[in-house]
């Protein structure tokens, strides 16, 4: 009889605790969160509370990142102060009212103005891009700043490591940031860090996950930025990581995967904008403050010819500048859109913007890989294909085993209204909410034509997916796609 009462008592306690948890999370989870994300978290917590609640505390809340957010907010204020006397648009620029409005939007969201630039080259050949990195590093006289998501020591990157060590030996201050989780998984990580320690390179992990050292944060956050700055005069940025083109992992080698990427080489005041972003991230991880300088209008061949604006984004930016940037570009299009992203898992507003563009007569070309390198992303992405195809989107699949890793978007290529975005950001909810990203808004200049040409080159080797073909996929593929679509909303 006593045993029965004890069991009943603990059952009652467990039931009360269960209902209290559910009652509390219903009022907490939706706070400052989009409905799709809130519903996904609530579904997981209510159905599987033992799994869902710990996952939410680790990955769904900002409890572990309040310090980082405070640092980001202070650093953003520093950026705003540095740019106080810089106009939204250079005096020589001749932009339409629509483009000026977009620039002002980005300035309000990030603090960065549109500035002059010289676009030296769009590097789309993997091997040639690495040769150029080595040339720029060997030409450095004062300092180098590198911020990269995935870094590895391999046959492809070895010349860069050698060049960085040569730079240190001649007195150049080399600062290096790389994402901890983004780099830790690749072979030779410990060998690489030991070499960095011996080299004299000043390096730090971004978003380190080291609880044994008192360094803990949300394990799903990544610093996905990719930028190389040399002496404040030249910079490279884009989608390319510093790793072998096959990404070293055994499964990639078996599949024969090769990554397709781009880097944009820049000079002029836009380099100072990139330095400001780098300085914020360096301060966040190292505690060392780098003096921030206002964009310098020096070294530009033709002022007003190339007008670019840096758009950084990440958890520290509460207004989601990345998502608003892509949505604004899509709504701006009058005749045509070219979207290129390896991971296209759109947030609700982006999906509506793309399909609405089709319904108002804009031709939309979406470039994706035939097969992505990640199982969950592959299926989450393809769960949107039917809806996109029915709206009229032309989906182009870049042939496997190549991984189309380039990220850009163009509105109205070839027209006077054309604008573009290129950088590190995918068009997925992770890039909009969880990743620290860097993108370039291109308001004017030859980079618009170069990106249009690049998009045409990609389409020429891709296969267009039709609604008829996609409708023949098996039932189990539909099921897996839909399940993975739910996981993409867990932000």
TrEMBL record:
Q: How does it sit in the membrane?
A: Multi-pass membrane protein
Q: Where is it mostly found?
A: membrane
Q: Does the keyword Nucleus apply?
A: no
Q: Which GO terms describe its biological process?
A: cardiolipin biosynthetic process
According to its UniProt record, the EC number is: 2.7.8.-
Report a single Gene Ontology molecular function. cardiolipin synthase activity
This protein's UniProt keywords? Cell membrane, Lipid biosynthesis, Lipid metabolism, Membrane, Phospholipid biosynthesis, Phospholipid metabolism, Repeat, Transferase, Transmembrane, Transmembrane helix
Superkingdom of this entry's organism? Bacteria
Keyword Membrane included in the entry's annotation: yes
One Pfam annotation reads PLDc_2
Transmembrane intervals: 7-29, 41-64
The cellular location(s) given in this protein's UniProt record come to: Cell membrane
> Which stretches make up the PLD phosphodiesterase domain?
219-246, 400-431
A GO cellular component annotation in the UniProt record: plasma membrane
The EC class name is transferase
Protein name in UniProt: Cardiolipin synthase
Which lineage is the organism of this entry classified under, starting from the top rank? Answer: Bacteria, Bacillati, Actinomycetota, Actinomycetes, Mycobacteriales
């Amino acid at each position: 009889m006593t045993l029965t009462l004890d069991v009943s008592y603990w059952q009652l306690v467990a039931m009360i605790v269960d209902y209290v948890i559910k009652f509390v999370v219903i009022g907490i989870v939706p706070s400052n969160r989009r409905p799709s994300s809130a519903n996904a978290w609530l579904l997981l917590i209510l159905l599987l509370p033992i799994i869902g609640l710990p996952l939410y505390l680790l990955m769904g809340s900002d409890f572990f990142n309040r310090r980082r957010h405070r640092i980001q907010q202070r650093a953003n204020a520093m950026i705003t102060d540095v740019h106080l006397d810089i106009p939204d648009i250079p005096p020589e620029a001749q932009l339409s009212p629509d483009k000026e409005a977009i620039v002002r939007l980005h300035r309000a969201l990030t603090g960065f103005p549109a500035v002059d630039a010289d676009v030296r080259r769009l590097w789309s050949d993997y091997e040639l891009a690495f040769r150029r990195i080595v040339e720029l590093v060997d030409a450095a006289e004062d300092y180098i700043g590198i911020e990269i998501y995935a870094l590895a020591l391999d046959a492809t990157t070895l010349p860069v490591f050698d060049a960085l060590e040569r730079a240190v030996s001649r007195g150049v201050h080399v600062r290096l940031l790389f994402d901890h989780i983004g780099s830790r998984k690749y072979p030779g990580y410990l060998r690489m860090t030991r070499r960095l320690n011996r080299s004299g390179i000043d390096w730090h992990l971004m978003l380190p996950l080291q609880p044994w050292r008192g360094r803990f944060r949300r394990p799903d956050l990544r610093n996905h930025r990719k930028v190389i700055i040399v002496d404040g005069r030249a910079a490279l940025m884009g989608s390319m990581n510093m790793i072998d083109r096959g990404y070293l992992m055994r499964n990639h080698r078996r599949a024969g995967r090769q990554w397709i990427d781009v880097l944009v080489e820049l000079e002029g005041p836009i380099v100072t904008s990139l330095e400001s972003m780098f300085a914020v991230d360096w301060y966040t991880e190292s505690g060392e403050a780098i003096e921030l300088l206002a964009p310098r209008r020096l070294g530009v061949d033709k002022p007003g010819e190339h007008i670019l604006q840096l758009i950084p984004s990440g958890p520290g930016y509460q207004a989601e500048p990345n998502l608003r940037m892509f949505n604004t570009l899509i709504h701006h299009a009058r005749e045509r859109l070219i979207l290129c992203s390896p991971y296209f898992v759109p947030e609700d507003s982006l999906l509506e913007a793309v399909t609405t563009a089709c319904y108002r007569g804009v031709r939309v070309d979406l470039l994706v890989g035939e097969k992505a390198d990640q199982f969950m992303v592959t299926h989450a992405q393809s769960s949107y294909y039917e809806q996109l195809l029915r709206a009229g989107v032309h989906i182009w699949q870049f042939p496997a085993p190549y991984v189309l890793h380039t990220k850009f978007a163009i509105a109205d290529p070839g027209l006077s209204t054309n604008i573009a975005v290129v950088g590190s950001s995918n068009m997925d909810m992770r890039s909009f909410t969880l990743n620290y990203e860097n993108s370039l808004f291109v308001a004017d200049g030859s980079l618009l034509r170069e990106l249009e040409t690049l998009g045409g080159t990609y389409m020429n080797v891709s296969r267009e997916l039709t609604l008829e073909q996609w409708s023949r996929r098996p039932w189990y593929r539909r099921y897996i796609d839909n399940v993975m679509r739910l996981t993409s909303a867990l932000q």
